[in-house]
Specification:
The complex is a heterotrimer of chains A (250), B (283) and C (269). Chain A has ten helices and no strands. Chain A is mainly alpha-helical and 250 residues long. In chain A, helix 2 packs across helix 7, helix 7 runs antiparallel to helix 8 and helix 8 packs across helix 9. Chain B folds into two domains: 244 residues, 3-Layer(aba) Sandwich (Rossmann fold); 36 residues, no CATH class. In chain B, the strands form two sheets. Chain B has a six-stranded mixed β-sheet with strand order 6-7-8-3-9-10, sandwiched between helices. Chain B has a four-stranded antiparallel β-sheet with strand order 2-1-4-5, covered by helices on one side. Chain C has 269 residues and is an alpha/beta fold. Chain C folds into two domains: 225 residues, P-loop containing nucleotide triphosphate hydrolases (Rossmann fold, 3-Layer(aba) Sandwich); 32 residues, no CATH class. Classes of the chains: A mainly alpha (250), B alpha/beta (283), C alpha/beta (269). Chains in contact: A-B, A-C, B-C. Chains B and C meet through helix 6, helix 10 and helix 11 of B and helix 7, helix 10 and helix 11 of C.
């Protein structure tokens, strides 16, 4: 439950979008963010919102999940509205700003809810792979990222167990005093840290046993396939971007 | 201290609506001053049951009586801290939760949560070390430098220091070698007979519990499918096999003799008694 | 050569404590050996030494190759290891990604990897598990996947390091059946490092270690007769071994019998 929240809130629901190559999804996300920032009038922002909404419906994930996402940044939105009102900004401009934020949040939610975090890591590795030519160890950083993501549920389980056993020894987690809260955090961090060190040790042994090495090339067996829909998706986004830029110039 | 489950159910709340009930309408009574063992395959609900007893989880249905405490979803203001003072819980691999630099501080931790007076603390700590077969020479040692068996004992001592009436152990023998295992079983027995505690052991180590169990509850899919003393439970070899639970080897052997040669030897839990039976029946 | 692992005069110190002192050991090719010892007997250190993790004095030959910094990588290709907590050794959340990890590291082609996966799936019967998430698997299934991952690069030696201590007896027996079947089909050398003497029943050779010394070595049945030594070392004998020894005193059997059905038939002809 808690781990589901942290691991990018991946919601395992099959849909057209979830089957897209993670790289095309990430590129599209970047293009969309640029578009949203550039769109300067209300109609465009509403048009973009309807575009995102269509995507949201396509994912077949319950709307309440998306609502919760937007709801979680309500204070940021409120803050923006208040600042803008104080600066006597026009109401339409405020509406555009709020819509922009919502558009970006919803679009990235579509990305994270339809792409497992490990695939996201692979996507990031692909995007950064040209840096390999500059001798930057992208492959190894990607592996570290993948392992970190892969172990988040394990780490959360361990934290839960430690908290439960401390609760069983009389620790009161609902106490209001700052001293107690700090103490509770410290008492959790120490065993977690030691467990992490042990795990790092074990993992380095496992990497050696599984023949991982820093220097040579490695195959990527389950490379995500690139299909016509992926190219089409990027093309559509680029097309929309061009229109928005053109509108801005004309 | 009485512990009774009355039509208790527990469902884990997940993102997706269709969650199976981890505990499905269980009613049982833990036998006082005895070693109660809870066995069952993975996913049968053993850990959930354990966490319900000291209110780490609140039942979604039904109520649990633990001494004067009543745990149910409508009673919001139960004094959990006091409950946990009386019901100690020791998780699997308890040594993974160490966070103090000396054994003394680790054992003290629980006592300090309950604001014990300083005079009593030192004696309590020494007593709890004795209960697990260690002594004061361990007090200033760093818990992380101890052997597996010793670490396990210190973790147990730190819960025993609160002198709970009921102690729950989750897989206490896992990861220990034979000698440490036998040692630990001796400690459990002593806690029952000398210190008059009520012990609950959740485990799948059937051979170990055969040596100490007074009463056994067999769980599967959140329900109690069999309960009784070890004779009543382990004689149901075929039933348990269907639930993927193995019985102690000595029982399996007698069962095989009965099935293939139709010779009924008594239920023997000591190998020497079995030998005598075999001798009588062969000659 | 008959011995697939040959250790000669191994000496090793860790933190100024001597763990092994002129230690010798041979393991026969194709055998199923149980290395039995209490915690602290040095068994896990031995594994790490064989894998070339530490530097040591003496000689270790794996499949006739002398272990050194240069040959470390080639030697590791011949060994597959299954550890005790499978969830800590998975590198990915989908089963197939974990199994192919070693092959990806060795830069096998995609076709070679595909062939190997088909071979292993058939061998261990894990076809249905390939695309499942690792945390959806039961304890036994996780260990099966760990075995598949260890076998993926086709090693000649498969080592289990306390790999069964967390499993319940039923699952453990099922996994041992899979391992027995695997051994029959491939004649791979299997080493089971454990502190649980019941595991001895599944091998043909037993080696007992205590504080870095080789105490007992030989055929399973012969070693299990040494009840006094087992008692001295604080190790329990498996039930069938204890039973056989006691029945021997009464003259009801004349050797160690480890299979229950065989014993019943011997006693009541």
């Amino acid at each position: 439950m808690l781990s589901n929240f942290f691991v990018g809130r991946f919601y395992d629901s099959p849909s057209t979008i979830s089957k897209l190559n993670p790289l095309s999804k990430m590129i599209s996300t970047l293009i969309f963010i640029v578009m949203t920032i550039l769109a300067k009038d209300l109609r465009l922002s509403i048009a973009l919102f309807s575009f995102v909404f269509v995507l949201v419906l396509n994912t077949r994930i319950p709307l309440r999940v998306y609502f919760k996402t937007v709801w979680s940044i309500k204070f940021l939105i409120l803050f923006m509205i208040i600042i803008n009102l104080i600066l006597k900004v026009e109401l339409t401009i405020i509406a555009i700003t709020v819509l922009k934020i919502i558009n970006i949040v919803l679009y990235t939610a579509v990305l994270t809810l339809t792409t497992s975090p490990l695939l996201l890591a692979k996507g990031i590795e692909k995007i950064l792979s040209p840096l390999n030519k500059l001798k930057i160890p992208v492959k190894n950083m990607a592996l570290s990222l993948t392992l970190a993501i892969r172990f988040i549920p394990t780490i959360i389980n361990e934290a839960n167990k430690i908290l439960k056993s401390q609760a069983s020894r009389g620790v009161d987690f609902y106490s209001k005093s700052i001293k107690d809260k700090l103490s509770a955090v410290k008492n959790l961090l120490i065993p977690m840290f030691i467990l992490s060190l042990k795990r790092a040790d074990e993992l380095s042994l496992i990497m050696e046993v599984r023949l991982f090495n820093l220097k040579s090339d490695r195959t990527n067996y389950r490379e995500e396939r690139w299909s016509f829909i992926d190219t089409y998706t990027i093309f559509v986004h680029l097309f929309m971007l061009v229109i928005i830029i053109a509108k801005g110039i004309i | 201290m009485e512990i009774r489950f009355n039509n208790v159910s527990y469902e884990y709340k997940g993102i997706k609506k269709s969650e199976k009930k981890a505990i499905d309408n269980i009613s049982l009574e833990i036998k006082k001053n005895k070693i109660n063992c809870i066995i069952g395959p993975s996913g049968s609900g053993k850990t959930t049951l354990m966490e319900l007893v000291n209110a780490l989880l609140i039942p979604t249905d039904g109520k649990i009586n633990v001494g004067k405490f009543v745990i149910d979803k409508n009673k919001k203001n139960i004094n959990v801290k006091e409950l946990r003072f009386n019901v100690g819980l020791i998780f699997e691999f308890p040594e993974q939760q160490f966070f103090k630099s000396t054994v003394k501080k680790e054992i003290e931790f629980g006592l300090k949560q309950y604001e014990y007076k300083l005079k009593n603390i030192d004696k309590r700590i020494s007593d709890s070390l004795l209960m697990v077969g260690l002594n004061d020479s361990f007090l200033n040692r760093n818990p992380f430098t101890l052997s597996n068996g010793e670490m396990r004992k210190v973790a147990i001592a730190s819960v025993l220091a609160l002198n709970p009436k009921v102690i729950i152990f989750d897989e206490p023998t896992v990861g220990l070698d034979d000698a440490s295992k036998n040692n630990l079983l001796k400690i459990l027995r002593m806690l029952k007979t000398r210190y008059k505690k009520t012990i609950i052991v959740v485990t799948h180590d059937v051979d170990a519990l055969h040596k100490i169990a007074d009463h056994i509850f067999v769980l599967n899919d959140g329900k109690v499918i069999l309960e009784g003393d070890k004779y009543e439970v382990f004689k149901e070899v075929d039933l348990l096999q269907n639930y993927k639970i193995k019985v102690p080897k000595i029982i399996e052997f007698s069962h095989k003799v009965f099935k293939s040669k139709n010779i009924k030897m008594g239920y023997r839990d000591e190998i020497n008694d079995l030998i005598k039976d075999i001798y009588r029946h062969v000659k | 050569m008959r011995d697939i692992i040959s250790i000669k005069n191994l000496s090793f110190k860790y933190d100024k404590t001597s763990i092994f002192d002129k230690f010798n050991l041979n393991i026969k090719r194709g055998s199923v050996t149980t290395i039995l010892g209490a915690n602290g007997s040095g068994k896990t250190t031995l594994l790490k030494l064989i894998l070339g993790i530490y530097e040591f004095d003496g000689e270790i030959y794996i499949d006739n190759i002398l272990l050194s910094k240069k040959t470390k990588k080639d030697i590791r290709k011949k060994i597959g290891v299954v550890f005790d907590k499978p969830e800590n050794s998975f590198v990915s959340d989908i089963v197939i990604d974990d199994i192919v990890f070693s092959l990806e590291n060795l830069n096998y082609s995609k076709e070679e990897i595909e062939d190997r996966i088909n071979e292993i799936s058939k061998l261990l019967n894990i076809d249905k598990l390939l695309y499942k998430r690792v945390n959806e698997l039961s304890g036994g299934e996780k260990q099966l996947v760990a075995i598949a991952s260890a076998l993926s690069h086709n090693p000649e030696i498969l080592i289990f390091d306390e790999a069964f201590s967390m499993l319940d007896l039923y699952t453990k027996e099922k996994i041992f059946e899979v391992i027995k079947d695997l051994h029959k089909k491939t004649n791979i050398t299997i080493i089971n490092i454990t502190h649980s003497s019941n595991d001895c029943l599944y091998g043909d050779t037993i080696i007992v270690l205590d504080e870095g010394r080789l105490i007992l070595k030989g055929d399973t049945k012969r070693v299990l007769e040494e009840e006094k030594m087992f008692e001295k070392l604080g190790l329990e004998l498996p039930f069938m071994a204890s039973l056989s020894i006691k029945l021997k005193y009464y003259g009801l059997v004349d050797e160690i019998i480890l299979d229950m059905d065989e014993m019943v038939n011997k006693l009541w002809k």
